[in-house]
Design goal:
12 strands, 278 residues, TPGS2, alpha+beta, Knr4/Smi1-like domain-containing protein, 8 helices, Knr4/Smi1-like_dom, SMI1/KNR4-like
């Protein structure tokens, strides 16, 4: 059975509330094992102030309270494919505060000025429509040279989960998925808290954010969803119309050995007769 590595009662209660009792849910799912939560020390207020000063933005209140309680979050679990084959697949990870950096520093998408002083806007800096989950109305994301885009996590080589400030003065940045190949934006959550709860609701299943992308889940990940939490895909039935994506990694399933298909060489009739005579 799954077991959560925890300490004293106060810490136990804090992490149980933070993870919304996810460990207990996973305990009731067959074949899930090695449920582990790494405890981290909280950030000091001076660290948060220094991060805000460095990037010239304010962390939203819920995110600030999170990092004043724990400097990141790392929760993972394994799945038992067979008695002797246990592999880690589930993972919820939020980086240390110092590891949250500007996306544009990584992919060099800074606005440039052409000789005729006209601003040239690269594809990532553009208007993108998305559906507001609260109102149900179509809203749009307006990015410009003053926008701040921070990377929270990377999903293989397919997408980045981003905290997006349309302007540095914004007090309520939103969480978006940036598809790295097409540079398309997909809306994920209104706030950091909502994104954390979405991660928990999806059990930390691998690449769950791709449920909301245009490319969809890899085949082996979708099989895990159908096996452990099929209800999470009920609202995403159009996934079968999407292109199947390939991820450059070894998926956690057994590889069939082609040796099992080898057959013995057939003997000729003359050889068979010689054996019978002998």
């Amino acid at each position: 059975m799954a077991s959560l590595k925890i300490g004293n009662d106060t810490e136990d209660m804090f992490y149980e509330n933070l993870s919304l009792g996810l460990a207990k849910v996973l305990n009731n799912i067959p074949r899930i094992t090695n449920v582990t939560l790494e405890k981290r020390l909280p950030c000091e207020k001076a660290q948060i102030t220094a991060w805000e000063s460095r990037h010239n933005v304010y962390l939203p209140d819920d995110m600030k309270r999170f990092y004043l309680s724990t400097d990141g979050f790392n929760f993972y679990w394994s799945y038992q494919y067979s008695p002797n084959d246990i592999r880690r697949v589930g993972h919820i990870h939020f980086p240390h505060l110092i590891q949250i950096t500007l996306v544009r520093d990584n992919i060099d998408t800074i606005l440039t000025v052409s000789p005729n002083t006209t601003l040239t806007v690269p594809p990532i800096i553009r208007q993108s429509n998305y559906v507001d989950m609260c109102s149900g109305h179509i809203d749009h994301l307006n990015l410009n040279s003053r926008s701040k885009i921070f990377e929270l996590s990377t999903i293989a080589n397919l997408a980045k989960v981003c905290l997006v400030y349309e302007t540095p003065e914004s007090s309520s940045p939103k969480i978006f998925l940036l598809e790295t190949n097409s540079l398309r934006w997909q809306f994920l959550a209104e706030s950091f808290t909502e994104y954390l709860r979405m991660s928990i609701a999806h059990l930390g299943l691998p690449y769950w954010e791709l449920c909301f992308s245009s490319c969809g889940l890899p085949a082996w990940t979708e099989q895990l969803f159908l096996l452990l939490a099929p209800h999470l895909l009920e609202k995403n039935e159009n996934r079968r119309l999407r292109n199947i994506v390939c991820i450059n990694e070894n998926p956690p399933y057994n590889v069939l050995d082609p040796v099992v298909f080898r057959t013995k060489l057939r003997c000729s009739r003359q050889t068979q007769k010689m054996r019978l005579n002998n």
